[in-house]
Design goal:
It contains 2 helices and 9 strands; from the N terminus they run E-E-H-E-E-E-E-E-E-E-H. The chain is mainly β. A 6-stranded antiparallel sheet has the order 1-2-7-4-9-3, with helices on one face. Strands 6-5-8 form a 3-stranded antiparallel sheet, with no helix packed on it.
C-alpha cells in the first residue's frame, strides 16, 4: 500500500486568494481571472520534498519537475500554471512585479503551497533562514517557459488566454481550493 501524506483537512486549511492587476507587460491575473492561491500549512512540517513529490504524483494533476529556490528576478510563465510546494525554510516572495502598487508580498514557510496562475509575475525577495527550497510542478504534459514582462513577449502573453485550468486540485484532488477559483 502506498504511503498517504496527511494533509491539513480542508475545513482547517487557511487559504489566501489574490487578484493582481496587470502591470506593464506582466499580465498577472488579468487574463484568466484565476487568483494567486496560497494554502498555508497544507503539508505537515515533517513532510520531506520526496514525500511532497510522491503525493503530487499520486494526485496526478501536476508533475514535479524541480527542487530549487525562487529566482530573484520577476518572471512569469505563459505555457503552464505553476504549483510551488515549500519543502524547506521560509522566504518573503513578491507577486505581481516589485514596482506594482497592487503587488502581493507574502511570507511562506515549509508546508505552504502556492498556486501561481500563468502570467503572474513572481520573485524571491528574501530567504529568511537560509536553505529555502520548493518543489516546482506544472500541469501534467506541459512544459514551462520564462517571461520577464519585456517587449517581444506579447505573443506569449496572448497565449495565456488559451491555458486551461485544473480538472482537480493539484494538492487535494476533488473539491480542493483550486476548484473554487
Amino acid at each position: 500500500m502506498a504511503f498517504q501524506t496527511q494533509l491539513t483537512p480542508l475545513k482547517n486549511l487557511r487559504i489566501s486568494k489574490h487578484q493582481i492587476p496587470a502591470y506593464g507587460l506582466i499580465p498577472n491575473t488579468s487574463i484568466q481571472n484565476k487568483p494567486l492561491l496560497i494554502y498555508h500549512s497544507a503539508f505537515p512540517n515533517s513532510t520531506s520534498a520526496s514525500a511532497i513529490e510522491s503525493h503530487l504524483s499520486q494526485i496526478g494533476v501536476v508533475t514535479p519537475q524541480w527542487r530549487y529556490t525562487m529566482f530573484t528576478t520577476t518572471h512569469f510563465h505563459s505555457t503552464a500554471h505553476e504549483v510551488l510546494c515549500i519543502s524547506s525554510g521560509r522566504a518573503r516572495l513578491c507577486f505581481g512585479g516589485e514596482d506594482n502598487s497592487k503587488k502581493v508580498e507574502s511570507e511562506v514557510t515549509k508546508g505552504d503551497v502556492v498556486v501561481v496562475p500563468g502570467g503572474v509575475g513572481h520573485r524571491l525577495l528574501e530567504d529568511l533562514d537560509g536553505g529555502f527550497e520548493m518543489v516546482g510542478s506544472y500541469e501534467a504534459g506541459k512544459s514551462w517557459d520564462m517571461c520577464y514582462g519585456k517587449k517581444g513577449e506579447e505573443k506569449k502573453i496572448e497565449s495565456i488566454s488559451k491555458l486551461g485550468w485544473f480538472d482537480k486540485d493539484p494538492v487535494y484532488g476533488d473539491g480542493g481550493p483550486a476548484m473554487d477559483a
